[in-house]
């Protein structure tokens, strides 16, 4: 059956949404992953097939349950659709209706019956000090629980900064020896979804990719999905033009802060933090609901070595040279009022003229300029 002829009636009944809404959702997820419309149709058909729902074992280590709390507030899809229609959430220490030995036995049974097929989600850091006694569930340490669950998992996802690189638990002096899942499971591929809490869309998009293709999406050297963590927050921030023009808020509540100027001088870690916060915002409510959008500097929560490590109001390490060359260096701009809008415009025009002149010169040198052009 062709993709456009696929029968979505069962999906409409199961999810309680129209075919149009369902396909629009899948298209949006595919687009955010950088995939084609054909991939969107493949994703829609995969989600529509209940047999493709992967069993999920969800572990909790040292954490505040913030990632799960964020997922509870997801609307695209909602949590009930995620755990009942997209995945089969067989074990989750916070959401399980049962308790005690019964739940632990179910977990072991699911893992045994679905070897090489289940998705393991780790939420929270894993403490290694003193043989792991700082985190125990059902009489077992998080160390042993994670090692056992990871052995036969089809894929492993570290959800949240604590699971990705240790989070606040791993900050100095780190008395419990907390580490993230990738550091503990060093011989396995672990996809990390950092954030404190992470954006639910980054997790859902990654899971939908897994449901569709049976594998996890392309990741960077830190295990992060490239589609979600491929660019610095600074690159897509809507306060970025103020940074380039040297317009900074000097303190909370001053004129620059009220006008929406760049928060770099207030300690914004956007220039050294990789995440898609500016484009997705948070909790599906729009209106600039994310730290910078509401007037607070980025904390760098999703970046190991930044969040929970660097002082809140210290200046960020600017990873890219962003302003044009004739703009003052960051260090020089820290003590002045910055460029005026007019000066920035003139500087931008100068850059354009310089680029144009260089292009013309190169064209002539290559002998490609024709008579009469």
Strand order across the largest sheet: 2-1-3-7-9
N- to C-terminal distance: 55 Å
CATH architecture of the largest domain: 3-Layer(aba) Sandwich
Helix content: 25-40%
**Category by helix and strand content:** alpha/beta
The fraction of residues in strands falls at 5-15%
Globally, the shape reads globular
Number of helical segments with 4 or more residues? 17
- CATH top-level class of the largest domain: Alpha Beta
Subcellular location: Cell envelope
Cofactor: [3Fe-4S] cluster; [4Fe-4S] cluster
Protein name: hydrogenase (acceptor)
Binding site for [3Fe-4S] cluster: 277, 298, 301
Structure description:
The chain has 373 residues and is of the alpha/beta class. Helix content is 39%, strand content 9%. The protein is built from 17 helices and 9 strands. The chain has a 5-stranded parallel sheet with strand order 2-1-3-7-9, with helices on both faces. Strands 4-8 form a two-stranded antiparallel sheet. Helix 2 packs across helix 3. 42% of the residues are buried.
Q: Notable features of this structure?
A:
disordered C terminus; 373 residues; metal ion binding; 9 strands; Rossmann fold; Cytochrome-c3 Hydrogenase, Chain A, domain 2; 17 helices; alpha/beta; hydrogenase (acceptor) activity; two-stranded antiparallel ribbon
